[in-house]
Structures are given as structure tokens and as C-alpha cells.
Design brief:
mainly beta, five-stranded mixed β-sheet, three-stranded antiparallel β-sheet
């Protein structure tokens, strides 16, 4: 009933990000499940990996019916030390979570 497809992400995997610079991670996500993602009960949140986000949870601003797409954005900041950093986010509706969104950056 609940399923997604990642259509695109920005920055792309392994993008070089200047150390300590702020950037916005963006995913275009399609609802390929059978149920609407209701804005009053749906959010996307940090699941695991490096904590490069500026806040760990975001609410959906509108309902996303089956077949529709939504842009999800997360304010992030590259760490102060050069290296490879990955973070995973997930959509949550009530007690159910699905749709891993992973991003890996190279801070340099």
C-alpha cells in the first residue's frame, strides 16, 4: 500500500561539497503505492548515517495522492573535516516508515 520511487536527487551521489558550506538536499519522490500520503500524518526524517542535517524531521506540506510526485528538501551542512559522508532519510506515516533516501557527499 505504501511505496515510493526516487525520481531524482540533488546533489548527485558523491558530489564534492566545500567543507562547512550549507547546501540543500533535494529528492523528487513518486508515490507508487496505493494510498495517499496525508499531509497531517506524514513526515520525512533522519534515519541513520552521518548527522549533516540542520534539522532531523520535516512535515509534508500537502497530500500526495497515489501517482503524484513531491519534492522533499533537507537543509544540510558539510562537515569541517574532509571525507566521505552518507546520510539516510525515510518517509514516515503514523507508525509505518518506508522509502529510504540516501545521499553521499565528499567534503573537501
Amino acid at each position: 500500500d505504501l511505496d515510493c520511487q526516487i525520481i531524482s536527487q540533488d546533489p548527485p551521489e558523491n558530489a564534492l561539497i566545500t567543507i562547512q558550506s550549507q547546501f540543500t538536499a533535494k529528492w523528487i519522490v513518486a508515490n507508487v503505492g496505493l494510498k495517499t500520503w496525508p499531509s497531517d500524518n506524514t513526515d520525512y526524517r533522519y534515519l541513520s548515517g552521518d548527522k549533516i542535517h540542520l534539522q532531523p524531521i520535516y512535515d509534508f506540506e500537502k497530500n500526495v495522492p497515489a501517482g503524484d510526485r513531491v519534492e522533499l528538501t533537507v537543509a544540510m551542512q558539510a562537515p569541517s573535516q574532509p571525507g566521505v559522508y552518507s546520510t539516510i532519510w525515510r518517509i514516515t506515516i503514523g507508525q509505518e516508515s518506508f522509502c529510504n533516501m540516501k545521499i553521499t557527499i565528499i567534503a573537501g
